[in-house]
Amino acid sequence: MKQQIVDITDKIIKRSAKTRAEYLAKIDAAKSNTVHRASLSCGNLAHGFAACGKDDKSSLRGINHSDIAIVSAYNDMLSAHQPYQTYPDIIKAAVKDAGGVAQFAAGVPAMCDGVTQGQPGMDLSLMSRDVIAMSTAVGLSHNMFDGALMLGICDKIVPGLLIASMTFGHLPTVFVPAGPMPSGLPNKEKARVRQQHAKGEVDEAALLEAESASYHSAGTCTFFGTANSNQLVVEVMGLHLPGASFVAPNTQLREELTKAAARQATRLTQQSGNYMPIGKMVDERSVVNAIVALLATGGSTNLTMHIIAFAKAAGIIINFQDFNDLSEAVPLLTRIYPNGHADINQFQEAGGMALLFQELIEGGLVFEDVETICGRGLSRYTKKPILDNGELKWVDCVEKSLDDAVIATVAKPFSSHGGLRVMKGNLGVSVIKTSSLKESSLIIKAPAIVFEDQHELQTAFDAGELEKDFVAVVRFQGPKARGMPELHKLTPLLGVLQDKGYKVALVTDGRMSGASGKVPAAIHLCPEAVDGGLIAKVNTGDMINLNGETGELTLLVDEAELASRDIAQFKVIGHHQGMGRELFGFMRRNLSSAETGACSLFDS
Fold first, then answer.
1. Cα–Cα separations (whole angstroms), residue 84 to 111, 138, 150
2. What value does the mean pLDDT of the chain take?
3. Residues of the domain holding 544
4. Which intervals hold domain Dihydroxy-acid/6-phosphogluconate dehydratase C-terminal (predicted)?
5. 338 and 488 in contact (C-beta within 8 Å)?
6. Which CATH number characterizes residue 525's domain?
7. Percent of the chain whose predicted confidence (pLDDT) is above 90
8. Does 514 have pLDDT greater than 70?
9. Which residues, at least 6 apart from 468, have a Cβ–Cβ distance to it below 8 Å?
10. Three-state SS for 527?
11. Does residue 10 lie in a domain region?
12. Could you give the 3-state DSSP secondary structure of residue 547?
């Protein structure tokens, strides 16, 4: 192991000693030496299996058969989750063949940031993660279950399922992906058409045609945004079957992997004699492995908050500085859009997860001897799944990348740095994703233009008021102010200005999409404006220095001048009403800072 990574991990273990010990004691107290339903009264149990068939009722009456919970984010509007429609029947049959019973325990909401970008509903997006965690907890609270299968893919769904899974850490848990859609219009071409539309060069019909050619079928979007970053993180933590993340939906291989995942869940229960609860399986080293893989692939900045949140649910304390320090130790090994031209299917064709695991292990970048749902050791994840005469098998991965423009080696990486940096200065602390930035755009010193809504920037752009060097300061977007909506719709506008030769950047207490990266953006700024952060005192015309090389983010205004300024006040009107936002006030008020996971479920 690379000593730098070992040292960072040791710091995390030491920092988490008390909370981790309390967590492990909690899940030890929650486990059962027999089936969990044995603690139920006859009336409880009768309710629990009332709708089951005769055979399942017979099995659930006894104490020798495991009951596996199915928790699904299925809905048929969202392409990534539509394939899950058929999974419950497939899983139930596979679990029955393995000698157990599977019951559909809970359906959880799944919203798509792609649908809600720039819309009022986006204000609910981050908070939906906590709703998903609570919804999962409600489903698992019946104490019927000895293990769980989690069906979810996209932005907030997987982190929500992970928070709940760690909370019910005494249960063995397997995550079941559904896979990416086939490649459509290349992501770079889609981005080009978006910029053309922003400049008025193409109409909405042409834009919709391009978007429809990109997002065109069932499956996950093919760029390396938050959804696919989720899948990578889950597999690296050993919660998927090896190679399961990026197999296409509606294929025989995908179905066989789903059956195998269902069977594997039964092999980890107390009744199997091979008990491995998720709360013990995922430890500090597993979380570090997840961060390392995220950094090595240039994954979504959204995961900085999500990993902090689900790790905390397991008693493990992670912070922004850990990401920064690990990024210094981890080379960039992949180029997947927005960090390159390839999509996730081309990554898969170049060698995919198996080859990535091989590089990470041989390079001493991950802890190999961690527990997984398949047993101890990540080396088994260097194999890829195939069908051999209809039988699911795992074979050795390719010896080297089949496309070295997509997957590099530790010996010759795309960059020696993982591409994520913590920004610090008098404005506070934030993160910036540098892996997809040109070197010439890493440093900008320019006057601020202050906006309190992303639509104000659109208006200024349309009026031709932004034809100059500037730093867009978009404030009152943080967790407590707005629920931290993504500001991805700003990317085409700022990209157009960047292409015209202007030096532009973004500073915000909000967040950007996992697919963003062309424009330097210091995001997740803490403290946020509504908490009195200095961003609430910035005036248009103030000079800001953003240095992505050194991690400096400074408002270049005299301290005496700043002390004399009033703190801008958040204009609540129009932001907390409509599209269901009025229902989330209690949650919004209790969201922690981005650096502590932007979570309403734990004490800050």
1. 15, 20, 11
2. 95
3. 420-596
4. 406-598
5. no
6. 3.50.30.80
7. 88
8. no
9. 502
10. coil
11. yes
12. strand
